[in-house]
Write a sequence for this structure.
């Protein structure tokens, strides 16, 4: 008989001096798998079906809103940094760094009573996950870095079409937000994975209704740029690591994933033909199998 997967949340906890919104799937007695969201991404960006697949493989799956996204603390008083100037190499003050976002994740684990967790992150989330492993190695069982990079700008700069997506004007209403997401998917998915417009529209609507926050996205992106390269620090990692990247990624070029895997001793590299900056459902079985194999 089918047993429903226990669901916890969403709940808000105090962590690292801020408020973090999280939810969780599965049995809290199982090993924890912390899913770290990407740029401007909310916890609902991790599809429940993917979470379910991971739960069925024996994890307690936790997803959360980073600072400046979703229902977690917003840094309104910090203002909006000049992200374009930072991307052009000019000196820009960042309200916080990736190390602060990594400390948020550790604070969440502390609040949940979790001593160690498997840590998985995508895009910006991969950078945060790497930083967690560098700064708090005793807390991380395995590291999975998806469509991410080392922070070295030589391998991290987007392709021109990726820059256009990242610098597009923010939406002002639901219709324009849906259109922006459709535009993003049409460029970012990759040649092997056609866009399912109904899925994009449904996800965009849920995200908009939960609350988008462009100033926070700008601050997160500035944190990425100002935090600099992790390439040397990654060489110190000794934990089991999986690096996954699409060969056609326009936002973080595949060279970023390759550099990540080359920097971390004994890291496993999984490159996916025809994939861009996305995790379409067709990729989930292989990705889940690879994550499980790390354990």
């Amino acid at each position: 008989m089918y047993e429903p997967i226990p669901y916890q949340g969403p709940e808000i906890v105090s962590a690292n001096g801020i408020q973090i919104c999280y939810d969780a799937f599965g049995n809290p007695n199982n090993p924890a798998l912390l899913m770290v969201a990407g740029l401007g991404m909310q916890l609902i960006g991790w599809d429940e079906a993917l979470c379910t697949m991971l739960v069925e493989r024996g994890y307690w799956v936790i997803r959360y809103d980073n600072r400046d996204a979703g229902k977690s603390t917003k840094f309104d008083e910090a203002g909006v940094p000049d992200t374009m100037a930072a991307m052009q190499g000019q000196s820009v003050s960042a309200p916080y760094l990736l190390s602060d976002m990594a400390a948020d994740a550790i604070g969440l684990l502390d609040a949940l009573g979790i001593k160690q967790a498997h840590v998985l992150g995508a895009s910006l989330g991969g950078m945060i996950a790497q930083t967690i492993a560098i700064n708090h190695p005793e807390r991380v069982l395995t590291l999975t870095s998806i469509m991410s990079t080392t922070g070295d700008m030589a391998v991290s700069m987007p392709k021109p079409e990726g820059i256009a997506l990242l610098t597009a004007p923010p939406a002002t209403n639901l219709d324009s937000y849906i259109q922006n997401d459709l535009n993003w998917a049409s460029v970012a998915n990759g040649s092997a994975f056609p866009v399912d417009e109904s899925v994009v529209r449904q996800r965009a609507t849920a995200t908009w209704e939960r609350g988008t926050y462009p100033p926070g996205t700008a601050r997160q992106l500035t944190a990425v740029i100002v935090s600099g390269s992790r390439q040397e620090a990654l060489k110190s990692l000794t934990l089991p690591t999986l690096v996954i990247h699409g060969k056609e990624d326009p936002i973080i070029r595949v060279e970023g994933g390759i550099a990540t895997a080359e920097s971390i001793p004994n890291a496993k590299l999984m490159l996916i033909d025809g994939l861009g900056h996305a995790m379409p459902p067709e990729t989930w079985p292989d990705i889940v199998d690879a994550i499980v194999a790390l354990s």
